[in-house]
Fold this protein.
Amino acid sequence: MKRIALIAAIFAAQPLLADSNLPPAYWANRQLPDPTQEADAEALMEQLRCLVCQGQSIADSDAELAGDMRDLVRRRIAAGEKPAAIRAWLIQRYGTWISYKPTAEAAAWPLWLAPLALLLAGAWLIRRRIRLRGND
Amino acid sequence: MSQPWRFLPIALLLGLVATLGLRLMRPADPAIPSQMVNRSIPTIDLPPAIAGKPGLKSSDLVTGRPRLLNVFASWCVPCADEAPVLAQLKRRGVMIDAIAVRDTPGATSAFLERWGDPYERLGADPRSNAQMALGSAGVPETFVIDGNGVIRHQYVGPLSEANIPGILKQLKDAQ
């Protein structure tokens, strides 16, 4: 009997115990009635990072906090707030970490400059090779 | 190719391996610190989480006396873990307010009955909105708030006995 109970405990859905006792927020998994607003919300949610499943967007995450963030985004967009303002509000709280959209801040400069630098280096290498062959 | 340049690929590879090895030995901290530290408490206005205890407004946290704001939930196991530490802080005269995240009055009451209730005020935050306004990324978290309502410090994760002297000092410094 005890063994059966232990085996049952292994197969029980334990992660459920780590969830809250409230259902998902109203707008967490429900589209806004206005398609333009819903499109704006979708676009923003795909660029916001989940605080729980770090590396997923809140549009993809099943975490409860991600659901609450979707609810917040949809409510604010329905109230007429601009996506940029909502993003700024979240960045003010969690830092640029929360947004997948690269910023122009100094720490991101290598990211913008690397492709350019690599292209220039490639051009220089090709030029050298062509010149070397010309000398043969 | 000239002699020194021949070793560049090997040097790059070694550099890469060293960087990866270092990160494997010292993984990055996954905690996301709140950017609201050293800013005024954001606007919150939460209804009472349980009967018989007042809810929580931003103005309740601007009292001229430093206090703690604890973000917790009854469904959070580490929150039960830190309950004795909060009880000890209360015994030392620390004022503690709290936000109950995604919780029902019944579950919150049962949790406080079982693990102790150190809170002056307790607001209900059913959609995590106050939690997000604070820049808090999970439960439990604890904020040290000075007398002017400015957030001075943030503790991510459960408090332990070892945190008590530090918290008492931070509260004193926030006077």
Q: What stands out?
A: Chain B touches chain A at residues 30, 32-36, 73-77, 101-104, 107, 126-129, 131-135, 137-138 (CB under 8 Å).
